Amino acid sequence: MNDKLVFLGLLYFVQGIPYGLQSSLLPVYLRGAGHSLTRIGFTKILYFPWVLKVLWAPLVDRVGTKRRWVVGTVSGLALTCLSSAALAPEAHIWGVAGTLLAMNALASVQDIAVDGAAVGLLKGRGELGLGNTAQVVGYKAGSVFAGGGLLAVIDVAGWSWMFMLLTFVYAGVALFVWGTPVLDDDTLRGQQADGSRRGGQGGQGADAMRPWRVWRKLLAVPGTPWTVLYVLTYKLGEQGAVTMFPLFLLDHHMTARELGFWNGVIAMGFSICGSSLGGLLLAQFSIGALMRRMFVLRTISMVFQSSLLTILEPSPLMKGMAVLSMSVQHFLGGLITTLTFTTMMHCTQRAEESIQATHYSFLATLEVLGKLTFSALAGGVVDWFGFQVAFLFFLTLSAGTALHVWTATFTGALREHQLKDQPK
């Protein structure tokens, strides 16, 4: 079991590196080079391959083995980093954009293969719980490494040496996966074949030829319309604040190195703690009660953070309050993410077994799409209206989502007795 957790944790670690580069390191680096917040915000479009991964997931499932897909994608990431080492982001912004787009595309394909491998490797509820913990912690640790650790030293090491380091990391992981005995391709291929045979039974072959039938089935699952609206909107206000507040600090209060440490390492560490605590709290409390409280606390934390925008003079007190604000925000964000994916799974468990995998992938894709779209637009909102007005807008969105969740826990899809009746 330990070998499986190390294997999965390592793969999710390298999978989180592109996210850390783009969400934490690149915005700070580009802002320091004088780029507008609008242009920085539009770099979020480079996450788009994650939205499209549902289109090529069947190819990964049906062609080749999981080992070959993982080795191929991780090797591709190594080559992409090697080519990026020759670029200067100030002079080759489009080349850097192409590099990150390629990294996101390769990481999204890797995600499909690793998730499929995890399904075959993890047995029983105990292993599944530990495996999901390895996924969350590994992915966020990779993000911290790239968005915090590398940002803290980029002024000393430089862009080229940073990407050379990533090249060696990816190359080493590719060699590890190629030689590890943990990933039994024959077993996984056999399970895949069995699943394909089962998928061809009944009317599913006809449904595959008529995709609109599948969509109607997905939307007919109890609670799906509410969950669709929820996953599209629950991160909007938070995502705008998480994206823009570090850039406000860069403009007025912190250096890139300080921001890399406090936002990229410390605050992300709180996010990991929040994600881990969410799973423990779900064993003790109902999800409805937790979501009500966490969304209210998130709204209060955004009020506090918005108030800091009025302080423009640098001071140790302001830095301390900013770090506290980011840490609380990331902690609550990580906890709410765990609750959200649990809510999505509760909804999926109400679907027919034959469409459960598709239903969950559908919700997960919309969750990414909601965050991605608003992150791309947040910089433009700040450029047009300024930080204070923009954060008032973010706060309004966050409060609206809290009201949406609060109402649902009493009268809608999150009524506690409905979730308690779901299969464990």
In words, what does this structure look like?
The chain has 424 residues and is mainly alpha-helical. The protein contains 18 helices and no strands. It has helices at residues 2-32, 37-42, 48-62, 66-84, 93-121, 124-157, 159-179, 185-199, 204-209, 211-220, 224-233, 236-252, 256-282, 287-307, 316-348, 356-385, 387-411, 416-420. Helix 1 (2-32) runs parallel beside helix 6 (124-157), helix 6 runs antiparallel to helix 13 and helix 15 runs antiparallel to helix 16 (356-385). The longest helix has 34 residues, at 124-157. Residues 185-209 and 416-424 have low confidence and may be disordered.
| Total E-strand runs | 0
Radius of gyration: 22 Å
Order of helices and strands: HHHHHHHHHHHHHHHHHH
**Derived structural class:** mainly alpha
Biggest beta-sheet profile: none
- Helicity, as a percent range: over 70%
The dominant shape is: globular
Strand content: under 5%
Query: Mean pLDDT across all residues, rounded?
Result: 77
Q: How many helical elements?
A: 18
| Unreliable parts | 185-209, 416-424
